[in-house]
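We give this protein:

***
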Amino acid sequence: MTETPAKTGSSDTKTADTFAWLLGVAFCLGYVVLVAAVAPLLAPVAFKPDMGFLDYVWKLPDPTALSHATAWGGYLLHQVTIWALIYRAQSQGLSYGRVLHPVNVMALAANGVFILLHLAQTHATYDGLAQDTPIWASQGSVIIMLVMILIMENQRRGMFFGKSANIPEEAGRVLRKYHGYVFSWALIFTFWYHPMESTYGHLAGTFYTTIVMLQGSLMFTRMHVNRWWTMSLEVLVLFHGTSVALMSAKGAWAQFFFGFAAMFIVTQMHGLGLKRWQRWAFVGAYGAGVGVTYLFRGVGLFAEIIRVPAVEYMLVYLFALAIWLGLLAADRLIAKPAPAAG
């Protein structure tokens, strides 16, 4: 994407977006520290026994109307506010630049307020959206976001070792235009799904959702499309998924660690302009890590590392096909002549 001067901006500083990004990252880190620091003040909750893989433990055993209302009310206000700001930004026809637009300042402030509000809500009534929605809804929303990124970036960095996948370019074009609405839903829903607990998995997830909210708040700035920054956001899910798996007794941490790391080797690192020896160094480190890990875990478990990439690449083609068919149907509907009068 060619850099163009910003149409409007709230600052003449050439690096205003970078400064806002640094402050945002510091806020996200500080927020995680705050969540952990005030966790001992949470009122004890007698959680129900863990019922297995599809169960989510951290919710009230006896929810109240107030706990439902505060969780859903906070989520809906947060969601509608950010959607409105995205619409405003797109309606203004802004260009990508290094300055902050007024809408960026509003988005940063709104996300900051609602992020702090959720912490207060957790301490007041505890429950999140998990009380009313299944755990796969939260997990699935993040997967949808990651798959959409693969489609959007297909033409720039390729899908498989730098080679583009044979999927309709129209799918990527549509997602690049409207992805903000879907991404904000995926993140804000996931953020309000969980109470602000202080387990390693919760803290990793909280940092991930807030840091990607920061990315969305910087829409129409050069920082929003910085390839190293955007790639880092994709890779961060590796640490989140692995930390959650380590909390579980099922021992599936390697599936997530090496599965998401495989996505970096096959797709993500090829958009960074790395030298050939650097790419081979990553491949070698990945191969060595897999070899040592499964020497101890057992070769019979080796196939687990392909599950994450297999699901994501399969969904890439399904999503691209669904979008293409939807566009085709819309074009035919628009082109259909009106019935003759009389």
Remarks:
- Confidence is low (pLDDT under 50) at residues 1-12.
- Residues 231 and 268 are 7 Å apart (CA to CA).
